[in-house]
């Protein structure tokens, strides 16, 4: 069966520090991959999605970036974190177009 | 413009009573609709989907949803609520301009009281 791993579960970072969040999927190949941010336990904001290695689409201009160095690995990065980057970050995968997305357990990021 | 609305910010139901969480949508063409549940500090879990076929869709944990094309609705239902059903529920619809993305509702907090 397929599983998705996301780490770390929680992270506290100072303003201006770099960020790297990692997400990996097991048990499938060539998944669609997604990064979301959820603010205040409510609405989901799509940040990036990828339909293949090296293919990244950005939905919201910001100081975050994403990379997909391997088929089942999706990384969210920042060179300098802002206070506004605080939130709950969720990685998800889907097996193909129009299929349900399956989520990791998220990373709660606090910026001090 | 495409959109999904969950008109209730919170729904309160007594344990054992039926529950309904409402969702309406606005898209062009045939909608693909999804329901997800989120427990505190966890990721979202897929409950059920409607793509085509029977208007009543059955999903996980005893939930079902009714697709109503004329009312552009896809309400989530359960005949008898459990305290453990208390969670945040999201409705989503396929973005017709992109095969890869979903348009998400704002979420409805469901509270089941013993």
Share of β-strand residues of chain A: over 45%
Tell me the structural class of chain A. mainly beta
Write down the overall mean pLDDT of chain B.
94
Shape of chain A: globular
Q: Can you tell me the residue ranges of chain B where pLDDT is under 50 for at least 5 consecutive residues?
A: none
Helix content of chain B: under 10%
Round the Cα radius of gyration of chain A to an integer and report it: 13 Å
**Cα end-to-end separation of chain B:** 41 Å
Largest sheet properties of chain A? 7 strands, mixed
- Please tell me what the overall shape of chain B is: globular
Describe it for me?
- The complex is a heterodimer of chains A (112) and B (114).
- Helix content of chain A is 0%, strand content 58%.
- Chain A has 112 residues and is mainly beta.
- The radius of gyration of chain A is 13 Å and the shape is globular.
- Chain B is mainly β and 114 residues long.
- Chain B contains no helices and 12 strands.
- In chain B, a hairpin with a 7-residue loop joins strand 10 (87-94) and strand 11 (102-104).
- The termini of chain B are far apart.
- The model of chain B has no long low-confidence stretch (mean pLDDT 94).
- At the A-B interface, strand 5, strand 9 and strand 10 of A face strand 6 and strand 10 of B.
Defining traits:
heterodimer; A: 112 residues; mainly beta; seven-stranded mixed sheet; four-stranded antiparallel sheet; 0% helix; B: 114 residues; six-stranded mixed sheet; 51% strand; globular
Characterize this entry briefly:
The complex is a heterodimer of chains A (112) and B (114). Chain A has 112 residues and is mainly β.
List the helices and strands and how they pair.
The complex is a heterodimer of chains A (112) and B (114).
Chain A: E1 3-7, E2 10-13, E3 19-26, E4 32-38, E5 44-52, E6 55-58, E7 64-70, E8 73-78, E9 87-94, E10 102-103, E11 107-111
Parallel strand pairs in A: 2-11
Antiparallel strand pairs in A: 1-3, 3-8, 4-5, 4-9, 5-6, 7-8, 9-10, 9-11
Chain B: E1 3-5, E2 10-14, E3 19-21, E4 24-26, E5 33-38, E6 44-50, E7 56-58, E8 64-68, E9 73-78, E10 87-94, E11 102-104, E12 108-113
Parallel strand pairs in B: 2-12
Antiparallel strand pairs in B: 1-4, 3-9, 5-6, 5-10, 7-8, 8-9, 10-11, 10-12
